[in-house]
Amino acid sequence: MSQKLPGCLSRFLPAETGIVFLLCSALSLSPVLSAQTDDTYQARRTQAFALYDANKLVDALTLLEKLHAEKPSDLAVFERLSFVTLAHAATLSDPAARKLERAHARKLADEAKAAGVDSNLLKAVLLVPEDGGEMNFSGTPEVQAIMQEGESAFAKGDMEAAVAAYSRALALDPKQYDAALFIGDVYFKKKDHEQADKWFARAVEIDPNRETGYRYWGDDLAAQGLSSEAREQFIGAVVAEPYNQRSWVGLSQWAKHENKFLGSPKIESPDKIEHGDKNQTNIIIDPSAFQSNGKKDGTDAWFFYPIVRAGWHGEKFQKEFPAEKEYRHSLPEEVDGFQSVVNQVQEKLKKQEIQQLDPALAILVKISGERLLESFILISRPDKGISQDYPPYRDAHREKIRQYITEWIIHPAQ
Predict the structure, then answer these.
(1) Which residue from 206, 212, 223, 235 lies 20 to 30 Å from 362 (Cα-Cα)?
(2) How many CB atoms lie within 10 A of CB 361?
C-alpha cells in the first residue's frame, strides 16, 4: 500500500525527523539474480539493483561503488549508493568509523542532490547530520549495543540474527519500541503476516503515541487485502502524530488505492483577529459582512468569532492556563470562538431569520452537534499554539479524533 524503501530506513535516521514522506515498511523480497556471466555495465547494474531490492545492502555496496565510479551520471545508482553506504555504517562496530561512514553517506546524498536526484530515498539520507550523528535507541548502553547488533545483521540481510538481537534487547527492556517494531518488519519481509501483525501490535501497545507501528501494521494488513482493517491502522497513525506529515502517507496512499481523497472542511471566518503587545487586540471585520445581511444565510454570525476570541488575550487565558506566563492561541479559545458562531446560527434558525444556511456554516453546525469541534480544530486548523493542546486531548478522546477523520477527512472521489 505505502511507498516502500529497502528495509526499515527509519532505523538508520535520527528520531522525530518530521519527514514528509513514508520512510518504510519493507520491500517484498525480490529474488537475487544468479551470478552474471555478462560483465556489461547494464548486467552489473541489474545485479546490484537485485541485491538492493532483496535487502542485501552490504553486498550491493561494492557493485554500486564501482558502477558510480564508472558512470557518475547514472542517478539511480547514485541515490542507491548513498543509502547503502548509510546502511553499511550500521555494520561497523567502532563508533568513530560508524560516524565517519554516515557522514560519507550524507556527503554522497548532497552530491546526488546537486546532480539532480530528488527522490524520497535521497531526502531521507539527507536527514542524516553532516557530521554523521546517529539515532540513539536506548539510554542503556547494553540495550543500545544489542540494537546496533541487530541493525548490523539487518543491513547484511541476516534476518534470523536481526530478530535474535532485537528479541534480546526487548527482553532487557520490555518497553523498547523499536525492537518490537523491527521484529515485525522482519516478519513482514518474510510475508509471515500473523507474526508481523503480532509484533506491530506489540509496538503500538508499548507506545500508542508513535505513528510508525500503526503505519507498518496498516501496510501488512493492506498486503493481505484487508482494506478496512488497514484503514483503521493508518488512521491510528494520524491520531498518534497528526503534525508529523509522515503519519499521513499510509492513509493518503490507502485513499488513492480505494478511489477516495483526503480533505478538510472549508470553514473560515471572514473576520480576523490580531493579538498585539500589552494585551492589545485588533479585530478586522470583513466589509462585505455588512452587505450580506440581505442574504439571510447566517454569515453575519461570524461577527461573534473575533469578538469572543478577543476576550482570551487577558485574564481568561491566565485562568484557563495558570502555569503559562505568556498568552498563546489555544484550543479552548478557538472552540469558544466557533461555538459562539454556532450558537448564533442556531438562534437565528429558531427565529426563522435564515432562509438558506451558508454551506460552510451548515457543516460547522453539524460538526458541533457531533461534538467534534475540538477534533476539527486540532486536525484541520492547528497552529503552533493550538498544537500544544493536542496530547492531552488525544489521550482522553482518541475515538472522537478517529470519528472526525473517518467522517470528515476521507471522501469518495468525485
Answers:
(1) 235
(2) 21
- Under 8 Å between Cβ of 307 and 341: no
CA distance 390 to 374: 9
Query: Looking only at Cα atoms, what is the longest distance across the chain?
Result: 86
Rounded to two decimals, the pTM is 0.79
Closest alpha carbon to 249 in 157, 124, 126: 124
- Break the chain into its structural domains and give their ranges: 9-125, 272-412
Dist. CA 105–CA 126, nearest whole Å: 9
Q: How far apart are CA 2 and CA 25, in angstroms?
A: 8
* Residue type at 92 in one-letter notation: L
308 Cβ contact list (under 8 Å, min separation 6): 336, 337, 340
Q: What is the pLDDT of residues 125-184, one digit of tens each?
A: 888 899 998 778 999 999 999 998 998 898 888 999 999 999 999 999 999 999 999 999
DSSP assignments along 78-97, one per residue: HHHHHHHHHHHHTT--SHHH
* Sequence-ordered alpha helix ranges (H) in 351-372: 359-369
| C-alpha to C-alpha distances, 129 to 13, 74, 75, 97, nearest whole angstrom | 9, 25, 22, 15
